[in-house]
Fold:
Amino acid sequence: MSKLSKKSLIASTIIGALTLSVSNLAAADKLSDLQNEEARIISASVKSQKKINSIYEQTIDMLGEYRNTVDEAEVLKGYNDHVQRMVDGQKANIASLQQQIAGIDKTKQGVVPLMYKMIDTLDKFVQLDVPMNLEARKERIENLRDVMNDSNVSVSEQFRLVLEAYEIEATYGTIFDAYQGELDLGGQVLTADFVHMGRIALIAQSLDMKNAWVWNNQSRSWDELGDEYLKSVTDSIRMARKQLPMDLTKLPVFAAGAK
Structure:
C-alpha cells in the first residue's frame, strides 16, 4: 500500500469515527429528549391523578350531601304531611266552631227567657216554702236578678248561678241546721234561735229559752209551743250546733194535709 493510500485510509477512519461520534451524540440527544418527555408526561400524569383524586373526593362529598338532602327531604315531607293533617283538622274544628257560634244567638234567645222564668219560679217557691234562712234566700234571688242585668256576666255564668241557687234550695230539705235571726210575731220582732229539720219542722226559741214557737206553713204563721217542748227545742238547737251529741228528741211536726 502506498503512503497516499494509507493516509486516505486513516482519513477515512477518522471521518468514520467522527461520523460515529456525531451519530452517537445525536442518539444521545434523542434519548435525553425522550427521557425529558417521559418525565414531563409522568409529571403531567401525577398532576392529572391529583385532579382526578380531588374530583373523586368532591364527588363523594357531593354524593353524601345529596343523600343527606334526600333524607332531609323525606323527613320534611313526612313532617309537612303531618302539619297538613293538623291544619285540615283545625280547619274542620274552625268550621264546627263557626257553626256553633252562628247558633249562639238562637240559643240565647231560648235560654235567657228561661232563666228569668226560673228565677221567678224560685222566688215564688221561697215565698210559699217554710221560711228557714229566709233573708239569705231572698238576697240570693235579688243577686240573681242583678246578675241578669249585668252585661259583664256571660250567659253561661248566669245560667250556672241560677242552677246553683236551685241546688242550694234543694239542700234545705235535707239538712239539720240552727241559726240566729229575727222572729216576726205579727208586728212584734225579736231575736231568736232557729232550728230546722229539713222542711219537716222549723222551730224558734227566745234567747232566754223561756218561749218557743213552731212554724205552721198552712196558716203561714207561728204557733206557740207549750213548756213541755222547751227542753227538747233547746237540745235540738245545741245538737244542730254540734254542742251536744246527736240523740232522739221530741219536736212538734205537722202531719201532711193537716189544717
User: Anything to note?
Assistant: The first strand starts at residue 176 and ends at 185. The longest helix spans residues 3-128. The chain has a mean pLDDT of 82.
